[in-house]
Records
---
Amino acid sequence: MRRILVIVVSLAVVIALCGPVTTFLYSGLGKSPYGALPVVSLPAEPLPIPWFGGEQMTNTFFTTLLMDALVLLMVGLGLRHARRGQLVPPKGFLSNFVEALSETLANFAESVAGRRGASIFPLVATIFFLVLVGNWFKLLPGAESIGFLETPHAASVPGYAPREIRWGPVVFYTVDGTQPVARADEAEPAAGTGHAEAAGLCTSCNITPVIRGIATDLNFTLALALITMAIVQAYGIRSQGGRYLLKFFNFPALAKGPMGIIEFAAGILEIISEISRIISFAFRLLGNIFAGTVLIFVISSLVPFILPSGFYALEVFIGLIQAAVFALLAMIFINMATVSHSGEHPAHEEPAAAH
Amino acid sequence: MDLEAARALGAGLAIGLGAIGPGIGIGLLTLGALQAMGRNPDVAGNILTNMILGVAFTEAIAIYALVVSLILMFVGIQ
């Protein structure tokens, strides 16, 4: 636990120290010559990369694939000492980092679920590492800012004149924040034409980032929530058999007379409670991470001077906390499903009024 | 008032008013949990689990408000 705290605090300090450095890169206080309003878009933006069946790959999906590879790499490298049977890994940031986080999570799984903790841990740890890496990766420089120059996909997004930057033989394109260009209604379709080389084609441009935080896409968080709640039901049925379904369809209670009808209705309410858990799982992660992204956009365009780095440090904490909350809740729900509540006091042991 | 202004106002009010109740609720929950932990540190782990569960259910209400305001802002209503 203390090791994680040290890692997170030192990460936050490093990021906070980055503030003065980036500040000198700006030529004017609050008036960066290239400063344009960033695109705030809730749906994932399509990239001009071909994908199955003519569909366009979205930037969050591309980032998710990247994060999958990164998690596999990180855990693979981090665990290679453990697999060799070395109890004390040699000095190395990655090994210690993965080990510290896994150990904390495993201890918590054991304290929540007792002996069953070992069987819950792998799934929960997978979710935790994917969400954590996704949340932290989007804070790196270049993420959510480097991308393709394109005509904005939505009519409400402002477009700017393209601008060329030459560093020797290398040519970059960016948008000129001082020259907003109204979007022509008969602009070319957004598909595929907006690559940087073809920048001459778009008159009213904006940047579609290649890498965008995976949790800012509802598709990712909802998929994670659906998987988690499906696994909760699977664990419940595995540990209790058919009796688990009595939690939802309490037919035996009907035989008890008038009071049984209330118990039956409470069972039906359990179904609604399960569905609302999917929604709150999905939107808790989406809301926190998306709000963090918008917060950094807004702060960076208001005060591009030291202040944003403080918010970046805050986002490091929020990224960890949200990943931990998702994992802990999954753990708690799985444990609640595996423990039978219909034993001694069926009426009193219901979790009081979930929603 | 035109439609855009009404939407922005509605979205702001939805999340702003919707966050009041859960804010108070999470504060009360954490207050109770921390007092319980201070009184009996041995069961702090157990209390923490239940507190996170309670906070998650309370937070869900703020999330409904967030959903409404996201829909207002980003999903066009014709």
---
Amino acid sequence: MNSEIPTRQSSFLLFIRKHNYLLLVLPALLLYTVFIIYPFLNSIRYSFFEWSGVGPMTYIGLGNYHTIFFGALQEFFVRALKHNLFAFVINFSLQTIFGLGLALALYAVTKGSNLYKTIFFLPNTLSTVIVGFLWNLLLNPQWGMVNRFFEMVGLDFLSRPWLGDPKLALPTILAVSAWRGLGFPILVYLAALLAIPEEYVEAAKIDGAKGFQIIRHIYIPLILPTTFTLMTLSFIWTFNMFDLIFALQGASAGPNYATDVLGTLFYRITFGGMGSSATGMGLGAAIAVVIFSVLFPVSYLLNRISKKFEL
Amino acid sequence: MELPRWRPGKLTQIILHFILLAYSIIVLYPIGIMLLSSVKGTREIFTNPYGWPASLRLDNYSKAWKLANFSVYFQNSAFVSVMTILVLLFVSSMAAYVLARFEFRGNRALYMLFISGLMLPVRLAVVPLFTMIRDINLLDTRTALLMVYVASGIPFSIFLLVNFFKSIPKEIEEAAIIDGCGLFSIYYRIMLPLIGPALATVGIYNFIGTWNDFFFPLIFLRTKSKYTIPLGVMQFFGEFTNQWDMLFSSLTIAIVPVIIIFMVASKQFIRGMTAGAVKG
């Protein structure tokens, strides 16, 4: 404790001397505030201005939001949003069906699970963009190994422009993203399965339950919290998608915006410009705020729901 | 720790292995093709995509390495990733230590402030980040990347480390104080070693994220000599679009080191990268 002798030190310094441990928090707090909090708040502020990034900023109130929801950008915004939602549904379905399925298989086999785990998780360690470039080559309509394989085994009709066909492009990209990302839900589900107490399974067996029944009545309900966590993560991930699409289709998210998502739209508006009035940093900031306004409540909600399912 | 659990019979086991094997092939197939193609000539890749190369063109790698300027890219990636986790672990463990072990007004609020960052996808703040970095003349620097990566890694790191710190018994600290250790000493010599596993988890999680990141180098970097590996590969793909032997070789160079490190330390990798989603 400080002595009670009055000194000429300011009360601020006294405070620091008494609570000197707070200094340890300062570096993290500074970095975090300057590079995360402050830009984040500024994003909201910028969204109310029209600004090309240099020069004067013009205050336009909700003008950017009007452009997004009702104006020149509406068509793009709605389409991108639809693609994000589609991506989420597909991504979550794939990860639940195949993620859980493969996890159950891993759980049930008597040996080899470690090797499988390593193999399955391998693509997760690779850079998304590099994965994109690799598959770009593999899916090349003329020379790509995928189509050549189909031709070699006589399934010529499957040899298509997977990335060039507006109807196939987005599902193809989602398949690639599943190839890369499935390892994560598999391992998370596996850990959840391994955490289920033995007594439950034993009790079920004593009651005469067979394999599939055990799955349905014991395992699946008990991993519901995990499913919600993975759902939240899937939602966040699909709404942030950018790298893979950029690598496979470029910033314009072709063909003909068939793979455009909020992330690529955001990038184009902010850094690529689109010509005419729909361009600039203010507009980009507004899109970012919109994306965040969707992300935050939904992930918060999903989080709350998942807590309800925990035992 | 193998507890008795549901173990289906032999026939089911064979079917399960079949399924697992099939998926393994799906996973390994692109990587295998990549390796196979990287030692072929371009024409051979086109005419004989699945066959064994006529001759193993190992010089593809040295050519791609030089053409793509990979030594620079590897250096940049290594610098940014290593520095990021060093700085991140340092600042966040200090902060986490204080948040976990000291009671003061505002502790909870400060903690919540940090944790809220988990919900803020940092990419969405990229517009002001970009202009701010530009205005303080740090555009096109690796330092800018460093700052952003450390800042965005702080929420998760503090979240994980505070939990770890809280589980350390108070007696250890009290004994150290009795022995006359100062604040920083306690932090550095006693607390840090005790949370080694947590530090490794945070370290791996952030290292891989930083090493693989493409978005921020894309936004911030302009000079090719500062590019990290993902950006460098993009550059290479743009320049050598039709030379598939070079393209596959460059991908191999970019990916294989990561794969090797992963195979060696797969357990830690997996633990690090699934942290937060896996309970316990």
